[in-house]
């Protein structure tokens, strides 16, 4: 008999995307000698899809999920991924700021407006807050569409969790 299990498939896809995607960005590296703090599915990587990151945080929450706390945790994971990649150039190579002779690289100063310089500083310091908000809202909307959460009438800054456990 054909017995589809869509909920189990969706939960597996969101909890362990490396099974379906078979890509290197979702592969969870095993560290020899590291204490086992749970299953490998519990590890949240910043390279995973936003909905997968939000789902893994969702699984850790209780019946009511505070949206601000969820957003903050999501932003921290994205920042962690940015910290890993910080210091690399476009080719993925680390930039040591040294020229061929070992002296620091010097570039010609270009005239920039103060606003353009401020935008460059923000990009170097971290992720754009509006981009993080947009990615968060998109992921939350996908989880709501799939039936994992619903808004509450009592607390406007919370959502209610609708699923429990893995089937």
UniProtKB/TrEMBL annotation:
The cross-references to CDD domains, in alphabetical order and at most eight, read: Orc3
Q: The organism sits in which domain of life?
A: Eukaryota
GO annotation, cellular component aspect: DNA replication preinitiation complex; nuclear origin of replication recognition complex; nuclear pre-replicative complex
- Renumbered to this chain, the Basic and acidic residues biased-composition regions fall at 86-104
Which Pfam families does the entry link to? Answer: WHD_ORC
Q: Where is the region Disordered?
A: 86-114
Per its UniProt record, what PANTHER family does this chain match? Answer: ORIGIN RECOGNITION COMPLEX SUBUNIT 3 (PTHR12748:SF0)
Query: InterPro entries recorded for this chain?
Result: ORC3, ORC_WH_C
Q: Which organism is it from?
A: Mortierella polycephala
Q: Which residues form the signal peptide?
A: none
GO BP terms: namely:
DNA replication initiation
Compositional bias of kind Basic residues: 105-114
Q: Which gene encodes it?
A: ORC3_2
Q: Which sequence ranges form a coiled-coil region, renumbered to this chain?
A: none
Q: Name one GO molecular function term.
A: DNA replication origin binding
**UniProt-recorded name of the protein:** Origin recognition complex subunit 3
Domain named Origin recognition complex subunit 3 winged helix C-terminal: residues: 7-164
């Amino acid at each position: 008999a054909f017995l589809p299990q869509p909920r189990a498939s969706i939960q597996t896809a969101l909890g362990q995307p490396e099974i379906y995607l078979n890509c290197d960005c979702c592969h969870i590296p095993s560290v020899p000698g590291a204490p086992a703090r749970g299953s490998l599915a519990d590890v949240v990587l910043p390279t995973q899809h936003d909905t997968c990151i939000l789902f893994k945080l969702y699984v850790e929450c209780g019946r009511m999920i505070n949206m601000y706390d969820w957003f903050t945790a999501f932003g921290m994971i994205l920042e962690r991924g940015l910290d890993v990649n910080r210091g690399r150039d476009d080719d993925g190579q680390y930039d040591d700021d040294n020229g061929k002779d070992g002296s620091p690289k010097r570039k010609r100063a270009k005239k920039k407006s103060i606003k353009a310089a401020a935008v460059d500083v923000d990009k170097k310091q971290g992720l754009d807050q509006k981009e993080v908000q947009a990615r968060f809202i998109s992921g939350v909307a996908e989880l709501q569409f799939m039936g994992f959460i619903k808004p509450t009438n009592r607390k406007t800054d919370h959502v209610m969790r609708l699923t429990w456990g893995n089937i």
